[in-house]
Design brief:
Blueprint lengths: L4 H16 L12 E4 L11 E4 L1 H6 L8 H11 L1 H8 L10 H11 L1
Antiparallel strand pairs: 1-2
This protein binds zinc ion.
The site of zinc ion has 8 residues, from helix 2.
Length: 108
Amino acid sequence: MKYTRNKVMKLAKDMCKAKYKTCAVCGAEGKLDCHHILGERFSPFQFLVLLCPSHHKFGVESFHGNPIWASEWIKDNMPLDWHIINNFKYKKKKWNYEKEYTKLMKEG
Ligand SMILES: [Zn+2]
């Protein structure tokens, strides 16, 4: 198997969907998207949350539309992730996709 960024990203998103199943904020079903809390550029395979369109992009309380609200929501509902994210130091790195894939499979 060839490990690519897209393949690892798909695994991360599949795991996010399997973990939450419904919108993490309101419990809605149907069309849901995985949101990268830290931004895909900074953390492509970690800190994903499953959201309905309203809580992802379009609502007054949404991760894209209202980052202050989103930050509070993460703090209240994902305290462990919130702590890690707040201490996150970005450094540019060359990803080893096989290693990241294996790491995700272990977490699942
Ligand atoms: Zn929602």
